[in-house]
Amino acid sequence: MTTAPLRGSDRRISPVFLGIAAVTAVSGWAAWTGFASNPGLAVFLFVTAAWIVSLCLHEYAHARTALHSGDISIGAKGYLTLNPLKYTHALLSIVLPVLFVIMGGIGLPGGAVFIERGRIRGRWRHSLISAAGPLTNVLFALVCTAPFWLDALDGVPDAFRYALAFLALLQVTAAILNSLPIPGLDGYGVIEPWLSHGIRRQVEPFAPFGLLAVFAVLWIPEVNHAFFDAIDAILRGLGVSDWDSYWGQELYRFWDSPEEVPPAISS
C-alpha cells in the first residue's frame, strides 16, 4: 500500500493552534503585568490555553514519531498541523481534559491520533511512539519549572509564578498518569508490543475505559492524598514549593478564590 507524499498543507501549523497560542501569550502577559482586574481570570486563561497547547504537542509527538517509524498516512490526517480538531475525538480532545483540570486539578490526556500500526515494523518503534507523548509532558514540565530550579525567580510577578507552578503540576500529573500500564493509556502502549497475542486480545475490550477508571480511582481520598503527596515531592525536587502550586490552583479557580494575589514566600 502506498500513500501520497506529504504536502506543504499537511505540515502547515493550523490557525486553530495559532489562536490557542495567541491566547496563551496574551493571558500570560496579562498575568505578568497585572493588566487584568482579576488576576485569577488571567491565570485561568493562561493555564487553560497553555494546557491545550501541551495537549497538541503531546499528540504531535505521537504523530511525528509514527511518521518517522513508517506510518506515512499521518500527514493526510492533519495530525502534523497541531490542530486539536483533527483528533479522533475532537470535542473530547479539549473539553474533557479542561474539565479534569477544573474538577480535580489533574492533567489527563484527552485527544488521540489514529496511527496505522500495521505500517510500522519493530516492537521498539511501537513502544517509542507511545512513549513520545508522556516524554513531551516531561519536557513541558521542565520548561515550566526552569525558573524555579535555576533560581531565576527575581522579578517574576507572583501571579505568573503561581500560574507556572500549577501548569507544571498538570504536566507532571499528565506524565505520570499517562505512563501507567493501563489499557487506553500510553504506558500500556509502551509495553503492549511485548505482550503475547492472547493477553492483548483479553485486555483490548477494557481500553476505552482505562482513562475513566484512573479518574474514578483518584476520587478515593486515600489514593488521592498519596498521589498528590508524590506529585508535591516531585515538584519540590524541581524547586516548586507546595505554596506555589497551591496558590496557582487557587488563582486558577478564580470564581471562588481571592481577588488579591498572595505574596510569594522566599525559595
Automatic annotation (TrEMBL):
<keyword id="KW-0862">Zinc</keyword>
<keyword id="KW-0812">Transmembrane</keyword>
<keyword id="KW-0482">Metalloprotease</keyword>
<dbReference type="GO" id="GO:0006508">
    <property type="term" value="P:proteolysis"/>
</dbReference>
<dbReference type="GO" id="GO:0008233">
    <property type="term" value="F:peptidase activity"/>
</dbReference>
<feature type="transmembrane region" description="Helical">
    <location>
        <begin position="90"/>
        <end position="115"/>
    </location>
</feature>
<keyword id="KW-0472">Membrane</keyword>
<keyword id="KW-0645">Protease</keyword>
<dbReference type="InterPro" id="IPR044537">
    <property type="entry name" value="Rip2-like"/>
</dbReference>
<keyword id="KW-0479">Metal-binding</keyword>
<comment type="similarity">
    <text>Belongs to the peptidase M50B family.</text>
</comment>
<keyword id="KW-1003">Cell membrane</keyword>
<feature type="transmembrane region" description="Helical">
    <location>
        <begin position="162"/>
        <end position="182"/>
    </location>
</feature>
<feature type="transmembrane region" description="Helical">
    <location>
        <begin position="41"/>
        <end position="61"/>
    </location>
</feature>
<feature type="transmembrane region" description="Helical">
    <location>
        <begin position="127"/>
        <end position="150"/>
    </location>
</feature>
<protein>
    <submittedName>
        <fullName>Site-2 protease family protein</fullName>
    </submittedName>
</protein>
<feature type="transmembrane region" description="Helical">
    <location>
        <begin position="12"/>
        <end position="32"/>
    </location>
</feature>
<feature type="transmembrane region" description="Helical">
    <location>
        <begin position="203"/>
        <end position="220"/>
    </location>
</feature>
<dbReference type="InterPro" id="IPR052348">
    <property type="entry name" value="Metallopeptidase_M50B"/>
</dbReference>
<keyword id="KW-0378">Hydrolase</keyword>
<keyword id="KW-1133">Transmembrane helix</keyword>
